[in-house]
UniProtKB/TrEMBL annotation:
This is ATP-dependent protease. It comes from the Bacteria. Pfam families: LON_substr_bdg. Residues 1-188 form the Lon N-terminal domain. One of its GO terms (molecular function) is peptidase activity. Gene3D superfamilies: BPP1347 like domain, LON domain-like. The keyword Hydrolase applies. Keywords: Hydrolase, Protease.
Length: 188
């Protein structure tokens, strides 16, 4: 599958919501073509010496769920993470928009949090309370869904990008939940 690629300095995972400001012509075109050619958010890799390939391989296919003209005249869009994907090849179009051949990764199975994992949801609720603008993006938080909770934590947790990429590439949520549980225990 071919997707336009939008590199950022942040991760978004399935079920995640992110507002974006679109100002470069190549990304304005990407948004205009979103009905016919989907796009994915990917994480910049500053260590990669070749500027055209400076992206980590695990990306998230997204869907535009809202758009608005911002007070500064720029286009604002809100995207919803739909599915994980692995970038297998990429190239650049004439206006600089990067496009990648991607292979879909299977979704993490939805499951309820175990009794010993409820603290992860409670701690994430505390983050939502501390950052009401972030919380406002989520009209229906899925506090009981282990994958949803793990993916929101991976978006906000300040851990090395390589570690996030490894966790995002995992076939299920267990490595992420194990790491998160360990971090929560260590912080208390």
């Amino acid at each position: 599958m071919k997707l336009a690629l939008f590199p950022l300095s942040a991760h978004l995972l399935p079920g995640g919501i992110m507002p974006l400001r679109i100002f470069e012509p190549r990304y304005q075109r990407m948004v205009a073509e979103a009905q016919t050619r989907e796009f994915a958010l990917c994480m910049l890799d500053p260590r990669q010496p070749e500027a055209m390939r400076n992206m980590y391989p695990i990306a998230t296919r997204v869907r535009i769920v809202d758009f608005d003209l911002l007070p500064d005249g720029l286009l604002g869009i809100t995207v919803l993470g739909v599915a994980r994907a692995r970038i297998t090849d990429l190239w650049q179009e004439s206006d600089g928009l990067r496009v990648g051949e991607v292979e879909p990764l299977p979704p993490w199975q939805t499951s309820r949090l175990n009794a010993d994992q409820h603290a992860l949801a409670k701690a994430l609720q505390d983050v939502f309370e501390d950052y009401p603008e972030y919380a406002a993006l989520y009209q229906r938080p899925e506090w009981d869904d282990a994958s949803w909770v793990a993916q929101r934590w991976l978006e906000v947790l300040p851990i090395p990008v390589e570690q996030k990429q490894w966790l995002m590439a995992a076939e299920n949520n267990q490595p992420a939940l194990s790491l998160l549980s360990g971090l929560l225990v260590a912080s208390h």
